[in-house]
Write a structure and sequence with these properties.
The protein is mainly alpha-helical and 323 residues long. The chain is built from 13 helices and two strands; from the N terminus they run αααααααββαααααα. It starts with a helix and ends with a helix. The mean pLDDT is 80.
Length: 323
Amino acid sequence: MINYIFKRVAQSALVLLVVGFVAFSMFRFMGDPIDNMLGQERTEADVQRLRGELGLDLPFLVQYGRFLSDAVQGDFGVSYRQGRPVSEIIVERLPATLELAAVSATLAISLGIVLGVFTAIRRQGWLANLIMTSSLIGVSLPTFLIGILLIYVFSVNLGWLPSFGRGEVVQIGFWSTGLLTVSGWQALILPAITLGLYQMTLIMRLVRSEMLEVLRQDYIRFARARGLSERIVNFRHALKNTLVPVITVTGLQLGSIIAFAIITESVFQWPGLGLLFINAIQFVDIPVMAAYLMLISVIFVTINLLVDLLYVFIDPRLREGGK
């Protein structure tokens, strides 16, 4: 068991190193940030001076080594565009992205499990068939198109909800939250639905498929033969075994929610990390882009590591294999 945990942690660290190296390598082909930082009146001496101050005249491996050593200490350098520490900018934008991801994940997991169980138990009913048919919308349509349709219906035509921004926020220490204001919740509804709809339909279909498979098992028939009520059979025996394989996929989807937030934030002009990354690409702000990708990679890998460890504790067969 300890060997398995150590192996998974080592694999996660290796993934982060590879992601950082690939991302840092790609940034070399996105243009020269000096062109955006200096005006047309620049001289060659100005270019060489700024290049030396930013460390861009050093070999690539030296630059990457510096980036990793500083990143471990929470120092991602200075933004080429804003002239401020990148860590300070990340701290400002991180609450917006995490709140959006948390609400979207809660929506996706709760509704996905409930609707998945319902459509499995009532699979012959008209409402279950309607839900399964409607779920094709969340699977088929791209995220940005769903966001545009929601804006058109609820913001443009009905005028019920705002189409962009985060609304009024409350500052609690370094954390800015919109969950304590009415306008903050109103601004959060459409982006959260847009971001969580695909994940919800995926989880719902997975839970339904696993639930139907479990309901056909012999021990379920035996439980019914003992005279147990349908509620006990469905929720105590079937659902418990259904959620075991769902945990892994759900963990992957939680990481995807954070990764896909970049599209949703662009559509709704949500002031989070995704929108920050889009703006950084336009201005070739390499420190911001590198910090964003490393942060997203850390979150994604950490979630998957926790899910793998949780899966081992839930399934005794994996514990035996881990030994």
